[in-house]
Amino acid sequence: MRKFIIKRLIISAVLLVVVAFLVYVLMRSLPTSYLESVARQKAMQPNSKTYEEWMEQLAATYGMDKGIIPGFISWCGNAVRGNFGDSWKWTVPVIEKFKSCVGLSFIMGAISFVLELIIAIPLGVIAATKQYSKADYTITIIALAGISLPTFFFASLLKLLFCVKLQWFDLGGLIGRYYDQLSPMGQFMDRAHHLVLPITVLVVISVGSLMRYTRTNMLEVLNSDYIRTARAKGLSEKRVIYHHAFRNTLIPLVTIIGGSLPGLFSGALITETLFSIPGIGYVSYQSMVSGDIPFSMFYLVFLAVLTLLGNLISDILYAVVDPRVRIAD
Q1: Contact 281/272 with Cβ under 8 angstroms?
Q2: Domains within the chain, CATH numbers bracketed
Q3: Predicted pLDDT at 43
Q4: What SS3 state is found at 283?
Q5: How far apart, in whole angstroms, are the C-alpha atoms of residue 246 and residue 243?
Q6: What angle do CA 215, 220, 223 make, to 5 degrees?
Q7: Is the distance from CB of 46 to CB of 306 less than 8 angstroms?
Q8: Collapsing DSSP states into helix, strand and coil, what is residue 201?
Q9: Among residues 317, 277, 265, 304, which one has the least CA distance to residue 110?
C-alpha cells in the first residue's frame, strides 16, 4: 500500500506540473488582461506616460515581461513557497483573498453534500428493492429531473418563485439590509436564510446522479448468487437487504463519495454567481472576467490539485473497503 501511494503521488505531481504549465500558457495567451485596462486608464490621465510605457512598467512589476518558460519556472518557485502574487482585481495577496472566501464555499458544499447523502442513498435503495413499482418510477423520474435540470435554469426558477413572487428571500447576497442591527444569533440566522436557496440548488442538481448510481449498484448486488443463497437459507428480507446487499453496495459508493470530498473546496461557480454569494466560485468568476491572471492561475491549478487528490482518495478507499483488492508491492 505504501509503494502504491508513493507511486500515485509521483504520477500526480508530474501531472500537476503539466497541467500547471498548460494553464500558465493559456493565461499568458489571453487576448486581454487587467494590466491592459489599467494601462489604458493611466495613459488617458493628463500628462501621463503612453500606453506602451505603462504596459512595460506594469508587466515588469508583475513579472509578465519574461518568456513563457522562464516565467513559468519563476511562478513555480514562488508557488512552492506559497507566494502566488497579488490579485490584480482584489489588490490583495491571492492566498489572503482565497482564505477569505473558501470557508463559505466549504460550508455550502458540506451541507449540500450531507443532504445529498441523506436523500440519495435511502431513495436509491428503496427504488432498487421495489423495482418497477410506483415508488421506483417516482424516484427515477425525480432523479432524471434533477440530472436534466440546468443549474442556471433551476436557480432562476427558484428566484422567480421564492424571491419575486412570494418574496420569502432576497434576490442575492449573503446578508440582509438590517444585518448590522441584528444580534449575533440574528446575524447567524440571516446568513443561514440567504443560503437556503443556493444549497437547495446544489442538492437538487446533484442528488439525482447519486440516487441512480445507488439504485444501479443495489440491483446488481441483489441479483448476485450469494443474495439468492442468503434468501434460500431463510434469512429475513430485511436482513438480506440491509446486512448483506447494502454493505456490498457501499463499496463503489465509498469510492464515489471519497472522490467528491475535495470538490467541497472548489466552490459552485454558477450557483454562487447567480445568487451573488461571495464564495470561491463567485470570486474566481469575477477574477476571470476581469483578466486577473494571478488569481485565475491559482484557482485553476487549485482545481487540478483537488481533482488529482480526489482520484487518489478514491483508489485508496477502494482498497480499504474491499478486502478482495490486493495491491502488489
Answers
A1: yes
A2: 2-68 (no CATH), 103-321 (1.10.3720.10)
A3: 82
A4: helix
A5: 6
A6: 125
A7: no
A8: helix
A9: 265
In the block, residue with C-alpha cell 424571491: 163
Q: Residue 327 gets which letter from DSSP?
A: -
Q: What is the pLDDT of residues 26-45, one digit of tens each?
A: 877 776 566 777 788 778 87
Angle between helices 51-61 and 34-43 (to 10 degrees): 140
Q: How far apart are CA 262 and CA 255, in angstroms?
A: 13
Task: Identify the pLDDT of residue 24.
Answer: 86
CB 304 within 8 A of CB 18: no
> Nearest to residue 108, comparing CAs of 257, 275, 258?
275
Alpha-carbon gap, residue 79 to 310, rounded angstroms: 21
Neighbours of 285 (CB within 10 A): 17
Of the candidates 299, 302, 305, 291, the residue with the CA atom closest to the CA atom of residue 62: 291
C-alpha cell recorded at residue 23? 494553464
Q: How far apart are CA 114 and CA 214, in angstroms?
A: 15
What is the reported pTM?
0.82
HSE at residue 142, side-chain half, CA atoms within 13 A, is 16
Query: Could you tell me if 65 and 56 are in contact, meaning their C-beta atoms sit under 8 angstroms apart?
Result: yes
Q: What is the tens place of the pLDDT at every residue in 187-227?
A: 999 999 999 999 999 999 888 888 988 898 888 888 888 88
The three-state secondary structure class of 86 is strand
Please work out, in degrees rounded to the nearest 5, the angle formed at the alpha carbon of residue 86 by the alpha carbons of 61 and 88.
Answer: 80
| Cα–Cα distance measured from residue 31 to residue 264, given in angstroms and rounded to the nearest whole number | 32
Q: What's the pLDDT at 196?
A: 93
Answer yes or no: are the C-beta atoms of 297 and 84 closer than 8 Å.
yes
Q: Smallest Cα–Cα separation from 125: which of 259, 206, 242?
A: 242
Render 232-248 in DSSP notation, one character per residue. Answer: HTT--HHHIIIIIIHHH
Taking all residues of the chain, what is their mean pLDDT, rounded to a whole number? 84
